[in-house]
Batch of 3 targets.
Target 1
Amino acid sequence: MKKINPKFNRYIYLGVTLLAVFTGGMLIHYVFSALFGNLSSFRSFFSALNSALMPVYIGIIIAYLLSPVVNKMDQYLFIPLMERIIRKKKEKVPAIARGLSIFCSLLLAIVLLVALFWMVIPEVVNSISSLAQNMPQYYNNLVEWGTGLFKKNPHYAQVFTDVSKTVFQGAMSWVQNDLLPTSNKLLSVVTDGVVNAVSYIVNCFIGLIVSIYLLAGKENFCAQIKKILYAVLPDHAVKGTLSVLRETHGVFAKFISGKIIDSLLVGILTFIIMSIAGVPYTLLISVVIGVTNIIPFFGQYIGIIPSAILVFIASPTKGILFLILIIILMQVDGNIIGPKILGDSIGLGSFWILFSILVFGSLFGIIGMICAVPVFAIVYRLVKRWCEKRLIQKGKDPKTENYRKEIVRKKKKEEKKEEK
């Protein structure tokens, strides 16, 4: 009997593999079709699963944000304190210190949030109510200002009056029918009860409990993940994965905490500067600008534009003053405050920041816009390292600057040829 040529073995193996993959894919398709019927049912299943896991998501976010605070309290406060108090059973010191750190961190976070909402939300609601009441007067002031501005051009004055009337009617309808009722509901939730937010409160409460468990056993959870990785992947792959995870954690922790601190400072500085300048609705626009500043790149514009319109309607001269002051403040934040706090945690050019925000924002909304920059920064670093490694293996220069110089040299040579 004639033996099969060994060269055909790999083709036989490839054919069997493709057949197995095709068969498995068809089987999975039929199983999911039988279970879920159609794609809409499949989406509804994952939507229900996502809703069920919402407390876990909230718990992970709380634990991640509070983890640095817990670590600092462990290191500098409760472990030294417990070591002085408990002299016999030293093995109990870390557990007791961790429990006290978690309790104090959560208590501090809750007190700060409640105080912030209690002080800010009523003032914001009062500002919105005042805006609704004073809108007719603001409209008349705006019309008088526009009429005086276009005094020598009656046609433009009439166009300005018609446009401002249309805008005023739309703004009044939005404020009275949408903004004011929403703010009153928000105030009632904060001050009177949580009847309309029971499910959200329950999710937050369960998420708080989840965060306690995560903070209490975070070292154990990390060890279990590491153990699983070593069980599933080769050693060199585990080392690479852990390195990427550590770097991702470093970038995220520094970026998110830095952005929160930066936005808080921007909100406080906005409030101080606008209060001194006598700009109306100071607290409202300070909250809007501080919150939207968390979103990289677009956040400043998202906060400044509606705030400027609001101030301009109340007083055109104050609106112009507000724009001048806020532009100066944003320049100070972008060139001094932001770089001092964030440092080189991003390492991305302006184009890639814009690109990442557009892509992630379109896919995941506001959360995507906030997380876009650190996520894309990690992807950018990994791709850059892979390219440099491949270039070194090929014996080529991995530095981008040298390629840029080469392009410039070629361009100059072409220009000289054209001149001749």
Target 2
Amino acid sequence: MRKCKWLRFLLVSPVLFVLVFTNCYIDPANIFHDYSEEIAESILNGKATYFENTNVNEREIKHNLIVKMPNKVDCIAVGPSLVMGVRSETVGSDVFYNLGHSGANYYDILAQFGLMELYGKSAKRVVFCVDSYFFDDTLMERLGVNDSLKRYADYMIDILNREETEKPQEGNINEIETKVRQLFSVTYFQAAVDSIQAANSYVIDRERWGIVDENFVNKYYMPDASWVYAKSYQNRTEEDVRRDSKEYDIEHQFSKGEYASEYCKEIFEKLIKYLLDKGTKVELYLCPLAPSLWNRIDAKETEYPILGELENYAISIAKKYDLKITGSYNPYNLDMKDEDFYDARHVRHEVLGIYFDFGP
């Protein structure tokens, strides 16, 4: 009987070793190799900084950026990846930081303002990318909420609601428990394998992050924390954008039949008033869809009402509080073409100054 147990152990051990080693080393969610603080410091030191595809936590990079950036800055940009191409020269200020990150939703953005409140940071101007990620309850439920930052969002919500607030403690909640759980996770192992396959190869002694040199061709952060796409992505064609638009999962991203959350609208307006009361100038940015994608949405307007609703709402808020607003979800309102986009959603950086007014 004892021999059988040892035999089972010997048979399982190699599998377990591969599972644990892969999860720890490949680390697709950057749980065991978190260089977000170092990357943020590099950006703040004026360095263009890259990271490996599978080892980045964008939320934590921007978290650390807020903590360490100057107490007073001229301008910040907030929102999902749609705003990440906005740079210092776009807004006309050298003291600018782009706090946008992929998939930034209601809780992510509120957490950033909560962190700014907690650490005494302020901005003279805020460029706010108004997108369905902030207002779509169904999409937020589908994508989930980042637990490590939610406490800062809750802190900010309490401030906006003028409720009794308790400053959140820094540090990762249940960090050890999370690491142990993911170390033995089959799901995390599959994510690691997927990341290897996506990269086609994996160099064992690779650098997980570093400073960009003149020959660098992959994606990276500018010294203002804005985003630069890889050369290969910058070279995408109009046909690529049309193909992306055709394949884009509109039902997933725009929550078929759903309208904007009234509660999210209420909090958004309170946030605007809060910033204005602090003397911060607020500007709204509506990032258009590529024409090929808009054609699909427009043809099904009654099925996907949230975009039309949000644009009307943003216009009404801008009018109510005398806010500057630039852009439109409808690219035809701006005379834009598919060639002005990297893909179905993201506008090319070089045309931002042509179609939008981000100037002070």
Target 3
Amino acid sequence: VHVQQDAMFERHGHDIHVTVPVTIDEAILGGKIRVPTIDGPVAVSVPPGSNTGSRLRLKGKGVAKPHGGGRGDQIVYLEVVLPEKPDDELRSFLQGWALRHPYDVRKKVGMD
């Protein structure tokens, strides 16, 4: 039996992996989003302060295990997506914020 690849879901054993885009405000403030699963969409809470690569685990939302062994999990990877065209209000806010709250994200990974 061959299983055809899906454009949205990726299977790893009995677990299903999916990447879901979130807005800046959903990532920073948290909130409820709808996430696709192989059984249909479900509501999921995005924790405040989430970032691209943050993982959420949906227990029992994966593929059925043989012999009644339950189901695997679904792993949701969050991907923060910026607005296509940030407006002047967002740019102005970020310029002021960045001056008051500098941080170096590349220093953490040795790229300083």
